[in-house]
Prior knowledge:
The complex is a heterodimer of chains A (about 230) and B (about 130).
Chain A lengths: L3 E7 L6 H9 L4 E7 L5 H7 L3 E5 L5 H13 L6 E4 L8 H13 L4 E5 L10 H18 L11 E4 H6 L9 H12 L3 E5 L6 H6 L5 H17 L1
Parallel strand pairs in A: 1-2, 1-4, 2-3, 5-7
Antiparallel strand pairs in A: 4-6, 5-6
Chain B lengths: L1 H19 L4 H23 L1 H11 L4 H43 L3 H9 L8
Amino acid sequence: MPRAVVVVPMHNEATVVADVVTELLTSFPVVVCVDDGSTDDSAAVARAAGAVVVPHPTNLGQGAALETGIRFALSLPAAEYVVTFDADGQHDVADARAMVERAAFRDLQVVLGSRFLGASREVPLARRLLLSGAVRFTRRTTGLALTDAHNGLRVLRRDAAEAVRLRLHGMSHASEILTLLARGGFSVEEHPVTIRYTDYSRTKGQRGYNALNILFDLAVNRMRAAA
Amino acid sequence: MIIKVLLLAGLAAAAYTLMHGRRTALSLLVRRAIALLALATGGVAVLFPDLVTRVAHAVGVGRGTDLVVYLLCVAFLFTTIGLHLRLAAMHDKYVELARQVALGAARADAPAAQAEIVRPRAVDIS
């Protein structure tokens, strides 16, 4: 198993994060939980479960948390891969493991989880419709032949992680990462993953209409970048 | 209708500022010049109200008051966009500052984490 550090952005996940950390630590040496200004005791729970906690002093947004976690992971010279993993328990640790092995075996810089390749059939209809629109948008704007967008499970090799600097602090970072990866010309592959849609993960998930906010962020970001 | 050209140009400039706006020395100079100009024009308009109406007629607006309202709308748009850009830039700095605080707080954990990554472990044959 290559040396990989898992980054878990979390915001008020005290009820589930202990299980997520414990399970991750069976496969990965280090789990970094970025506590994004939780008002519950997520940080203490994650620390007790064995994670390194990087505590944002206030809530900065998921994109900001991810960026902080990636920077912490890169500050560890031994980290060869950075894995991003959601705190709500919707991802499978075995998938994360398989993705790191795939990255190492096939010499890839980036492996992205996709719930639409293979196993996950239980994606709720509304989500599926929204995501198919997001996927088409992502394909067109990035040129990457992807089957999923906004999947929180990703593996970045050190060189790719170093090149990705997230500037969208909120929920638009998922598309931003893909744009940056496409622009950087990294070797990217998708890997089939299972998403567990629990009642908990559904309540923690984004509102569908936030897609419009994301579109707006991306449009402005792109035009400003072109300026 | 000269006013249509002027207002559309103003709106286009506002859109351009929203997308490409940067705080440069030139933009600062332009803002200051506009502020001085607005003060001077305001003074003149107060002293000679008829002048506003004549200028309005010259650009194709019925009343001086209407011209003032139109200019006010465009000025408000520029103010809002300027403030938005400024807040966004400040937010970026605030996030980076908070991130440095967070990373500083976790720095003490880094050596143990580094040791944990390189620690040799039993081969997993599962």
